[in-house]
Amino acid sequence: MIRSSLGRFCAFAILFAASETSSVFAEQAAPEGGDFRVAVEIAEILSDGSEKVFDRRVVIFYANKAYDFAMLAPNDVTVVDPVGGHVTMLSRKQNVRSVIPHLELVEATGRMRAYLVKEKRGKELGVGVPVQVIAGEDGNSHYEVAFTGKKYTSTVSKPLASDHAARFAEFNEWVARVNLYRRLGSPPFARMALGSQISDDGLIPGEIELQIDAEGQKRRYVTRYTFAKKLTRDDQKRVDDAAGMMTLYTSVPPANFPR
Predict the structure, then answer these.
(1) Cα(95)–Cα(104) distance, rounded to whole angstroms?
(2) Mean pLDDT within 142-170
(3) Under a CB-based contact definition with an 8 Å cutoff, are residues 35 and 61 in contact?
């Protein structure tokens, strides 16, 4: 979910199509819970209660990889490969790709965390803040994490398959680390803690609202997740197209990847 600064802050996406005979779908086996997809929509809630959508994404979980396709311009793609140990960013606009090893992402996250703690800004920017589970009157719980001027609130539900919660949380965490590595948006520590706690409890997010109160100005954003167990024909084509992009696009260092 690597796009505009608003999209990066809230939450936390192929032009060479492979032929049917060379489809990656025919070559790779699915993990335990099978393939699934998550449609993501991010919007700002305006003062009159209406919503302004500024990001839509489709995240496809297929054969131990997660493919994040931006549905709005510039329609970039991010591929998280936990087994291979790297994240690949693909720019459809400039036909370039960039690979970041997971180790570099982990080290960058550790350096930023240590720096914020040393400068006594950790709590201010969400490092180590606790996640609260709030029981609702209707019997449904929601999750909250709050720090200076910001609060995340998430509804939750049970996943469609036992491993979906962990796979989705892992994907979100790597994308958050990429944004931090590239210095896009604010440090994502509180958002990462929220996702981790939801996953640890065996659940998935339904709707996450971010409230920001800064310098007397209040803003609200909402991210909605829709999980589906079946991939569509378009999803299959997207994955095949991404495989072609990873082969044919020109490799550039992460610092040179379009922002």
Answers:
(1) 24
(2) 96
(3) yes
Rounded-to-10 torsion of CA 23, 164, 31, 70: 20
Beta bridge partners of 212: 150, 219
Give the tens place of pLDDT for each residue, 41-73: 999 999 999 999 999 999 999 999 999 999 999
Tokens 């930023």: give the residue.
112
Is residue 67 within 8 A of residue 60, CB to CB? The reply is: yes
Instruction: Classify 172 as helix, strand or coil.
Output: helix
Instruction: Look at residues 156, 1, 154, 17 and name the one whose alpha carbon lies nearest to residue 66.
Output: 1
Q: Compute the distance between CA of residue 109 and CA of residue 132 in angstroms, rounded to an integer.
A: 23
Give 224: exposed, middle or buried? Use CB within 10 Å, 0-12, 13-18, 19+.
middle
Contacting residues for 249 by C-beta, under 8 A, at least 6 apart: 90, 91, 95, 96, 97
Contact yes or no for 160/36 (Cβ under 8 A): yes
